[in-house]
Protein backbone atom coordinates (compact mmCIF):
# COMPACT_ATOMS: atom_id res chain seq x y z
CA UNK A 1 0.00 0.00 0.00
CA UNK A 2 1.28 3.51 -0.71
CA UNK A 3 2.59 5.41 2.33
CA UNK A 4 0.03 7.84 3.82
CA UNK A 5 0.64 11.43 2.73
CA UNK A 6 2.50 13.78 5.09
CA UNK A 7 0.39 15.44 7.75
CA UNK A 8 0.37 18.88 6.18
CA UNK A 9 -1.81 17.53 3.37
CA UNK A 10 -4.40 15.87 5.59
CA UNK A 11 -7.40 16.74 7.69
CA UNK A 12 -6.74 14.58 10.70
CA UNK A 13 -7.98 16.63 13.66
CA UNK A 14 -11.72 15.94 14.31
CA UNK A 15 -12.12 19.28 16.09
CA UNK A 16 -10.73 21.14 13.09
CA UNK A 17 -13.02 19.24 10.70
CA UNK A 18 -16.03 20.09 12.86
CA UNK A 19 -15.06 23.77 12.98
CA UNK A 20 -14.51 23.91 9.22
CA UNK A 21 -17.93 22.36 8.55
CA UNK A 22 -19.65 24.80 10.88
CA UNK A 23 -17.91 27.87 9.44
CA UNK A 24 -18.53 26.85 5.87
CA UNK A 25 -22.22 26.03 6.36
CA UNK A 26 -22.88 29.24 8.30
CA UNK A 27 -21.31 31.23 5.47
CA UNK A 28 -23.32 29.31 2.86
CA UNK A 29 -26.60 29.90 4.68
CA UNK A 30 -25.88 33.62 4.62
CA UNK A 31 -24.15 34.15 1.27
CA UNK A 32 -25.32 31.50 -1.19
CA UNK A 33 -26.46 32.67 -4.61
CA UNK A 34 -30.14 32.42 -5.42
CA UNK A 35 -30.15 29.97 -8.35
CA UNK A 36 -33.22 28.41 -10.01
CA UNK A 37 -32.16 24.79 -9.38
CA UNK A 38 -31.58 25.54 -5.71
CA UNK A 39 -34.98 27.15 -5.45
CA UNK A 40 -36.67 24.24 -7.21
CA UNK A 41 -34.89 21.57 -5.18
CA UNK A 42 -35.59 23.36 -1.88
CA UNK A 43 -39.31 23.63 -2.63
CA UNK A 44 -39.68 20.03 -3.85
CA UNK A 45 -40.82 17.57 -1.15
CA UNK A 46 -40.53 14.51 -3.41
CA UNK A 47 -36.95 13.17 -3.39
CA UNK A 48 -37.09 11.72 -6.92
CA UNK A 49 -38.39 14.96 -8.40
CA UNK A 50 -35.72 16.82 -6.44
CA UNK A 51 -33.11 14.43 -7.86
CA UNK A 52 -34.31 15.19 -11.39
CA UNK A 53 -34.06 18.97 -10.79
CA UNK A 54 -30.52 18.57 -9.43
CA UNK A 55 -29.50 16.16 -12.15
CA UNK A 56 -30.52 18.45 -15.03
CA UNK A 57 -28.67 21.38 -13.46
CA UNK A 58 -25.52 19.36 -12.84
CA UNK A 59 -25.37 18.07 -16.40
CA UNK A 60 -25.93 21.56 -17.83
CA UNK A 61 -23.32 23.08 -15.53
CA UNK A 62 -20.56 20.72 -16.69
CA UNK A 63 -18.15 22.89 -18.71
CA UNK A 64 -20.67 25.75 -18.82
CA UNK A 65 -20.98 29.00 -16.85
CA UNK A 66 -23.83 29.47 -14.37
CA UNK A 67 -25.01 32.66 -16.14
CA UNK A 68 -25.39 30.78 -19.44
CA UNK A 69 -27.14 27.80 -17.88
CA UNK A 70 -29.94 29.70 -16.07
CA UNK A 71 -32.08 30.44 -19.14
CA UNK A 72 -31.60 26.94 -20.59
CA UNK A 73 -32.45 25.37 -17.25
CA UNK A 74 -35.65 27.37 -16.83
CA UNK A 75 -36.83 26.53 -20.34
CA UNK A 76 -35.96 22.85 -19.90
CA UNK A 77 -37.77 22.49 -16.59
CA UNK A 78 -40.80 24.28 -17.99
CA UNK A 79 -40.94 21.96 -20.98
CA UNK A 80 -40.06 18.73 -19.14
CA UNK A 81 -40.78 19.25 -15.42
CA UNK A 82 -40.40 15.55 -14.65
CA UNK A 83 -38.27 12.64 -15.67
CA UNK A 84 -41.36 10.98 -17.17
CA UNK A 85 -41.99 14.02 -19.39
CA UNK A 86 -38.38 14.01 -20.57
CA UNK A 87 -38.53 10.30 -21.36
CA UNK A 88 -41.34 11.04 -23.84
CA UNK A 89 -39.49 13.84 -25.66
CA UNK A 90 -37.85 13.25 -29.03
CA UNK A 91 -34.11 13.66 -29.49
CA UNK A 92 -34.86 16.42 -31.99
CA UNK A 93 -36.69 18.43 -29.32
CA UNK A 94 -33.86 17.86 -26.85
CA UNK A 95 -31.27 19.02 -29.40
CA UNK A 96 -33.34 22.09 -30.25
CA UNK A 97 -33.52 23.17 -26.63
CA UNK A 98 -29.86 22.36 -26.05
CA UNK A 99 -28.68 24.25 -29.17
CA UNK A 100 -26.00 26.75 -28.17
CA UNK A 101 -25.16 25.14 -24.84
CA UNK A 102 -22.36 23.02 -26.32
CA UNK A 103 -21.20 19.47 -25.62
CA UNK A 104 -24.38 18.18 -27.19
CA UNK A 105 -24.01 14.56 -26.15
CA UNK A 106 -24.90 15.69 -22.61
CA UNK A 107 -28.53 16.39 -23.54
CA UNK A 108 -28.82 13.18 -25.50
CA UNK A 109 -27.49 11.06 -22.66
CA UNK A 110 -29.67 12.81 -20.12
CA UNK A 111 -32.69 11.85 -22.17
CA UNK A 112 -31.44 8.28 -22.68
CA UNK A 113 -30.97 7.95 -18.94
CA UNK A 114 -34.49 9.30 -18.28
CA UNK A 115 -35.89 6.68 -20.66
CA UNK A 116 -33.92 3.99 -18.89
CA UNK A 117 -35.29 4.99 -15.49
CA UNK A 118 -38.84 4.88 -16.85
CA UNK A 119 -38.57 1.69 -18.89
CA UNK A 120 -36.10 -0.42 -16.93
CA UNK A 121 -36.20 0.87 -13.36
CA UNK A 122 -39.98 1.24 -13.01
CA UNK A 123 -39.64 5.04 -12.84
CA UNK A 124 -37.56 4.85 -9.64
CA UNK A 125 -34.30 6.81 -9.53
CA UNK A 126 -31.34 4.93 -8.05
CA UNK A 127 -30.74 6.48 -4.62
CA UNK A 128 -27.05 6.06 -3.86
CA UNK A 129 -24.02 7.51 -5.61
CA UNK A 130 -22.78 4.01 -6.43
CA UNK A 131 -26.05 2.94 -8.09
CA UNK A 132 -26.55 6.24 -9.89
CA UNK A 133 -23.11 5.95 -11.44
CA UNK A 134 -23.55 2.28 -12.28
CA UNK A 135 -27.04 2.47 -13.76
CA UNK A 136 -27.40 5.81 -15.52
CA UNK A 137 -25.64 6.68 -18.79
CA UNK A 138 -23.80 10.00 -18.63
CA UNK A 139 -23.74 10.05 -14.82
CA UNK A 140 -20.14 9.99 -13.61
CA UNK A 141 -18.72 9.97 -10.11
CA UNK A 142 -19.20 13.68 -9.55
CA UNK A 143 -22.81 13.89 -10.80
CA UNK A 144 -23.75 10.73 -8.90
CA UNK A 145 -22.35 12.21 -5.66
CA UNK A 146 -24.10 15.52 -6.29
CA UNK A 147 -27.52 13.90 -6.85
CA UNK A 148 -27.14 11.46 -3.94
CA UNK A 149 -26.02 14.09 -1.45
CA UNK A 150 -28.33 16.92 -2.50
CA UNK A 151 -31.48 14.87 -3.11
CA UNK A 152 -31.24 11.76 -0.95
CA UNK A 153 -29.03 13.01 1.89
CA UNK A 154 -26.22 10.49 1.35
CA UNK A 155 -23.08 11.63 3.18
CA UNK A 156 -20.79 11.44 0.19
CA UNK A 157 -18.31 14.06 -0.93
CA UNK A 158 -17.88 15.45 -4.44
CA UNK A 159 -14.90 16.76 -6.36
CA UNK A 160 -15.22 19.21 -9.25
CA UNK A 161 -12.94 21.98 -10.49
CA UNK A 162 -13.96 24.38 -7.71
CA UNK A 163 -13.51 21.76 -4.99
CA UNK A 164 -10.10 20.80 -6.39
CA UNK A 165 -8.94 24.39 -6.12
CA UNK A 166 -10.24 24.90 -2.58
CA UNK A 167 -8.87 21.62 -1.22
CA UNK A 168 -5.49 22.04 -2.91
CA UNK A 169 -5.15 25.45 -1.28
CA UNK A 170 -6.44 24.36 2.11
CA UNK A 171 -3.82 21.62 2.20
CA UNK A 172 -1.00 22.95 -0.01
CA UNK A 173 -1.35 20.28 -2.69
CA UNK A 174 0.88 21.39 -5.56
CA UNK A 175 1.36 18.14 -7.48
CA UNK A 176 -0.48 17.89 -10.82
CA UNK A 177 -4.14 18.14 -9.76
CA UNK A 178 -5.32 16.22 -12.80
CA UNK A 179 -3.20 13.17 -11.98
CA UNK A 180 -5.14 10.09 -10.79
CA UNK A 181 -3.11 9.88 -7.55
CA UNK A 182 -3.97 13.46 -6.54
CA UNK A 183 -7.60 13.15 -7.63
CA UNK A 184 -7.98 10.01 -5.50
CA UNK A 185 -6.58 11.88 -2.45
CA UNK A 186 -9.01 14.73 -3.04
CA UNK A 187 -11.97 12.34 -3.15
CA UNK A 188 -10.80 10.81 0.14
CA UNK A 189 -10.56 14.28 1.61
CA UNK A 190 -14.00 15.35 0.32
CA UNK A 191 -15.55 12.19 1.77
CA UNK A 192 -13.87 12.78 5.12
CA UNK A 193 -14.95 16.42 5.30
CA UNK A 194 -18.56 16.22 4.14
CA UNK A 195 -21.03 17.17 6.86
CA UNK A 196 -22.99 14.09 7.98
CA UNK A 197 -26.27 15.88 8.62
CA UNK A 198 -26.25 18.35 5.71
CA UNK A 199 -24.16 16.66 3.00
CA UNK A 200 -25.89 18.34 0.05
CA UNK A 201 -25.53 21.82 1.52
CA UNK A 202 -21.94 21.15 2.51
CA UNK A 203 -21.00 20.04 -1.02
CA UNK A 204 -22.72 23.05 -2.53
CA UNK A 205 -21.00 25.31 -0.01
CA UNK A 206 -17.56 24.00 -0.93
CA UNK A 207 -18.28 24.53 -4.64
CA UNK A 208 -19.81 27.94 -3.96
CA UNK A 209 -16.69 28.95 -2.06
CA UNK A 210 -14.57 27.99 -5.08
CA UNK A 211 -16.90 29.84 -7.46
CA UNK A 212 -17.22 33.09 -5.53
CA UNK A 213 -14.36 33.48 -2.99
CA UNK A 214 -11.54 31.03 -3.60
CA UNK A 215 -11.51 31.95 -7.30
CA UNK A 216 -8.63 31.03 -9.63
CA UNK A 217 -6.77 34.32 -10.03
CA UNK A 218 -7.46 36.71 -7.17
CA UNK A 219 -9.02 34.81 -4.26
CA UNK A 220 -10.69 36.91 -1.55
CA UNK A 221 -8.83 35.33 1.35
CA UNK A 222 -9.76 38.14 3.74
CA UNK A 223 -13.47 37.24 3.37
CA UNK A 224 -12.99 33.51 3.37
CA UNK A 225 -14.98 31.58 6.02
CA UNK A 226 -12.34 28.84 6.24
CA UNK A 227 -9.23 31.00 6.19
CA UNK A 228 -8.08 29.82 9.57
CA UNK A 229 -7.87 26.27 8.19
CA UNK A 230 -5.99 27.26 5.05
CA UNK A 231 -2.37 26.18 4.88
CA UNK A 232 -1.68 27.99 1.60
CA UNK A 233 -2.71 31.24 3.27
CA UNK A 234 -0.63 30.46 6.33
CA UNK A 235 2.33 29.81 4.10
CA UNK A 236 1.77 33.06 2.23
CA UNK A 237 1.54 35.07 5.44
CA UNK A 238 4.25 33.40 7.47
CA UNK A 239 6.58 31.96 4.86
CA UNK A 240 8.03 28.51 5.03
CA UNK A 241 6.62 26.79 8.11
CA UNK A 242 8.90 25.68 10.93
CA UNK A 243 9.99 22.06 10.54
CA UNK A 244 7.64 20.56 13.10
CA UNK A 245 6.03 17.25 12.20
CA UNK A 246 2.42 18.36 11.69
CA UNK A 247 3.05 21.31 9.43
CA UNK A 248 6.46 20.61 8.02
CA UNK A 249 7.12 21.25 4.39
CA UNK A 250 7.41 17.79 2.99
CA UNK A 251 10.75 18.33 1.37
CA UNK A 252 10.66 19.49 -2.20
CA UNK A 253 10.89 16.61 -4.62
CA UNK A 254 10.18 13.70 -2.33
CA UNK A 255 6.51 14.31 -1.50
CA UNK A 256 3.90 13.09 -4.00
CA UNK A 257 1.55 15.97 -3.12
CA UNK A 258 3.98 18.93 -2.99
CA UNK A 259 4.83 21.07 -6.03
CA UNK A 260 7.36 19.31 -8.27
CA UNK A 261 11.05 19.96 -7.51
CA UNK A 262 11.47 21.78 -10.82
CA UNK A 263 8.68 24.26 -9.95
CA UNK A 264 8.84 24.91 -6.20
CA UNK A 265 6.70 27.39 -4.23
CA UNK A 266 6.81 30.82 -5.86
CA UNK A 267 6.25 33.51 -3.24
CA UNK A 268 5.03 36.02 -5.84
CA UNK A 269 2.03 33.74 -6.53
CA UNK A 270 0.93 33.34 -2.91
CA UNK A 271 -2.04 30.99 -2.50
CA UNK A 272 -2.40 30.69 -6.27
CA UNK A 273 0.62 28.39 -6.21
CA UNK A 274 -2.15 25.83 -5.79
CA UNK A 275 -3.55 23.97 -7.61
CA UNK A 276 -1.22 23.09 -10.47
CA UNK A 277 -1.99 21.26 -13.63
CA UNK A 278 0.18 19.61 -16.24
CA UNK A 279 0.20 21.69 -19.44
CA UNK A 280 -2.83 20.94 -21.64
CA UNK A 281 -2.34 19.50 -25.09
CA UNK A 282 -3.06 22.22 -27.66
CA UNK A 283 -6.29 21.65 -29.61
CA UNK A 284 -6.01 19.92 -32.98
CA UNK A 285 -6.43 22.24 -35.99
CA UNK A 286 -9.10 21.24 -38.51
CA UNK A 287 -10.61 22.92 -41.60
CA UNK A 288 -14.06 22.33 -43.04
CA UNK A 289 -15.57 23.76 -46.21
CA UNK A 290 -19.19 24.72 -45.72
CA UNK A 291 -21.67 26.02 -48.25
CA UNK A 292 -24.73 28.14 -47.57
CA UNK A 293 -27.17 27.17 -50.33
CA UNK A 294 -29.91 29.76 -50.56
CA UNK A 295 -33.09 30.29 -52.55
CA UNK A 296 -36.19 32.50 -52.54
CA UNK A 297 -39.02 30.65 -50.80
CA UNK A 298 -42.65 30.84 -51.91
CA UNK A 299 -43.27 34.08 -49.93
CA UNK A 300 -40.12 35.71 -51.24
CA UNK A 301 -38.15 35.21 -48.04
CA UNK A 302 -34.65 33.76 -48.28
CA UNK A 303 -34.36 30.10 -47.32
CA UNK A 304 -31.29 28.05 -46.52
CA UNK A 305 -30.64 24.36 -46.91
CA UNK A 306 -29.58 22.48 -43.80
CA UNK A 307 -28.66 18.81 -43.40
CA UNK A 308 -28.54 16.59 -40.36
CA UNK A 309 -25.25 15.24 -39.03
CA UNK A 310 -24.84 11.54 -38.21
CA UNK A 311 -26.28 10.32 -34.92
CA UNK A 312 -22.88 9.74 -33.31
CA UNK A 313 -19.63 11.67 -33.01
CA UNK A 314 -19.09 15.42 -32.73
CA UNK A 315 -22.34 17.47 -32.79
CA UNK A 316 -24.34 14.24 -33.25
CA UNK A 317 -27.78 14.70 -34.79
CA UNK A 318 -27.43 18.48 -35.12
CA UNK A 319 -28.23 20.36 -38.34
CA UNK A 320 -25.68 22.25 -40.40
CA UNK A 321 -25.02 23.75 -43.82
CA UNK A 322 -23.66 21.11 -46.20
CA UNK A 323 -20.06 20.69 -45.08
CA UNK A 324 -16.97 18.76 -45.99
CA UNK A 325 -13.80 18.24 -43.92
CA UNK A 326 -10.73 19.47 -45.81
CA UNK A 327 -7.31 17.87 -45.96
CA UNK A 328 -4.55 20.00 -44.41
CA UNK A 329 -2.75 22.38 -46.76
CA UNK A 330 -5.31 22.22 -49.58
CA UNK A 331 -5.08 25.23 -51.93
CA UNK A 332 -8.11 27.53 -52.24
CA UNK A 333 -8.78 26.46 -55.83
CA UNK A 334 -8.70 22.79 -54.87
CA UNK A 335 -11.01 23.44 -51.89
CA UNK A 336 -13.62 24.87 -54.24
CA UNK A 337 -13.34 21.89 -56.52
CA UNK A 338 -13.81 19.27 -53.81
CA UNK A 339 -16.72 21.23 -52.36
CA UNK A 340 -18.33 21.59 -55.81
CA UNK A 341 -17.87 17.82 -56.40
CA UNK A 342 -19.48 17.10 -53.06
CA UNK A 343 -22.46 19.38 -53.77
CA UNK A 344 -22.85 18.00 -57.29
CA UNK A 345 -22.99 14.42 -56.05
CA UNK A 346 -25.34 15.43 -53.35
CA UNK A 347 -27.82 17.66 -55.16
CA UNK A 348 -27.53 16.23 -58.68
CA UNK A 349 -27.12 19.83 -59.88
CA UNK A 350 -24.35 20.97 -62.20
CA UNK A 351 -22.51 22.96 -59.51
CA UNK A 352 -19.42 24.68 -60.96
CA UNK A 353 -16.47 25.44 -58.69
CA UNK A 354 -16.42 28.99 -60.07
CA UNK A 355 -20.05 29.51 -59.03
CA UNK A 356 -19.23 29.15 -55.34
CA UNK A 357 -18.80 32.55 -53.75
CA UNK A 358 -16.13 32.69 -51.05
CA UNK A 359 -17.54 34.58 -48.05
CA UNK A 360 -14.85 34.28 -45.40
CA UNK A 361 -13.62 32.10 -42.58
CA UNK A 362 -15.22 31.39 -39.23
CA UNK A 363 -13.17 30.03 -36.35
CA UNK A 364 -14.84 28.05 -33.61
CA UNK A 365 -13.03 26.42 -30.70
CA UNK A 366 -14.41 23.12 -29.52
CA UNK A 367 -12.79 21.69 -26.38
CA UNK A 368 -10.20 19.75 -28.35
CA UNK A 369 -10.48 21.11 -31.90
CA UNK A 370 -9.54 24.48 -33.32
CA UNK A 371 -12.01 24.41 -36.18
CA UNK A 372 -11.95 26.78 -39.15
CA UNK A 373 -15.00 26.83 -41.41
CA UNK A 374 -14.23 28.07 -44.91
CA UNK A 375 -17.56 29.54 -45.90
CA UNK A 376 -18.98 29.70 -49.42
CA UNK A 377 -22.43 30.62 -50.64
CA UNK A 378 -24.39 29.45 -53.64
CA UNK A 379 -27.70 31.02 -54.68
CA UNK A 380 -30.10 28.63 -56.42
CA UNK A 381 -33.03 29.68 -58.52
CA UNK A 382 -34.88 26.38 -58.75
CA UNK A 383 -35.83 23.62 -56.39
CA UNK A 384 -33.35 20.91 -55.56
CA UNK A 385 -34.54 17.37 -55.08
CA UNK A 386 -32.19 15.57 -52.81
CA UNK A 387 -31.59 11.89 -52.83
CA UNK A 388 -33.67 10.53 -49.90
CA UNK A 389 -30.95 7.92 -49.26
CA UNK A 390 -28.67 10.77 -48.14
CA UNK A 391 -28.78 12.56 -44.77
CA UNK A 392 -32.10 14.22 -43.87
CA UNK A 393 -32.25 17.81 -45.12
CA UNK A 394 -34.69 20.72 -45.22
CA UNK A 395 -35.08 24.34 -46.31
CA UNK A 396 -35.47 26.86 -43.49
CA UNK A 397 -36.00 30.59 -43.17
CA UNK A 398 -33.60 32.52 -40.96
CA UNK A 399 -36.08 32.37 -38.09
CA UNK A 400 -36.56 28.63 -38.49
CA UNK A 401 -32.80 28.18 -38.69
CA UNK A 402 -32.35 29.79 -35.27
CA UNK A 403 -35.13 27.64 -33.78
CA UNK A 404 -33.56 24.44 -35.17
CA UNK A 405 -31.02 22.21 -33.45
CA UNK A 406 -27.98 23.97 -34.91
CA UNK A 407 -24.65 24.53 -33.21
CA UNK A 408 -23.25 27.91 -32.21
CA UNK A 409 -20.59 27.42 -34.89
CA UNK A 410 -23.27 27.23 -37.61
CA UNK A 411 -24.97 30.35 -36.25
CA UNK A 412 -21.64 32.13 -36.63
CA UNK A 413 -21.41 30.82 -40.21
CA UNK A 414 -24.83 32.25 -41.06
FE1 LIG B 1 -8.96 29.94 -0.76
FE2 LIG B 1 -7.83 32.04 0.43
FE3 LIG B 1 -9.87 30.73 1.57
FE4 LIG B 1 -7.47 29.62 1.41
S1 LIG B 1 -8.01 31.45 2.55
S2 LIG B 1 -9.43 28.63 0.98
S3 LIG B 1 -6.80 30.35 -0.55
S4 LIG B 1 -9.94 31.91 -0.32
Classification by helices and strands: alpha+beta
Bound molecules: iron/sulfur cluster
**Total helical segments:** 16
Spans with pLDDT under 50 lasting ≥5 residues? 242-248
Number of DSSP E strands: 7
List the secondary-structure elements in sequence, H or E: HHHHHHHHHHHHHEEEEHEEEHH
Bulk shape: globular
Oligomerization state: single chain
Average pLDDT value? 90
3D architecture notes:
- The protein has 16 helices and seven strands.
- Strands 1, 2, 3, 4, 5, 6 and 7 form a seven-stranded mixed beta sheet that branches.
- The longest helix has 18 residues.
- It starts with 13 loop residues before the first helix and ends with a helix.
- The relative contact order is 0.11.
- About 2% of the residues have low confidence.
- Bound molecules: iron/sulfur cluster.
- The site of iron/sulfur cluster has 14 residues, from helix 10 and helix 13.
- Iron/sulfur cluster binds next to helix 10 and helix 13.
Summarize the structure in short.
With 414 residues, this protein is an alpha+beta fold. It is 43% helix and 12% strand. Strands 1, 2, 3, 4, 5, 6 and 7 form a seven-stranded mixed beta sheet that branches.
Amino acid sequence: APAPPPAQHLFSDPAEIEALRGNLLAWYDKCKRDLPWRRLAAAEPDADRRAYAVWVSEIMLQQTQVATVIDYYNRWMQKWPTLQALAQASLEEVNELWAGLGYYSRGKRLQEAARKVVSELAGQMPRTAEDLQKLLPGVGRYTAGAIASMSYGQATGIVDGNVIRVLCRLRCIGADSSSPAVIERLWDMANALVDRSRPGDFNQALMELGATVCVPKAPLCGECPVKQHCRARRRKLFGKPAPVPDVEDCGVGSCPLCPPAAEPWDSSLGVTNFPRKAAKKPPRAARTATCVLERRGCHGALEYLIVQRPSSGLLAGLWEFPSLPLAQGLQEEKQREVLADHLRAWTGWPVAAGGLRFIGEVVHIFSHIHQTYVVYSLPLDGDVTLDPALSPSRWVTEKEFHASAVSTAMKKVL
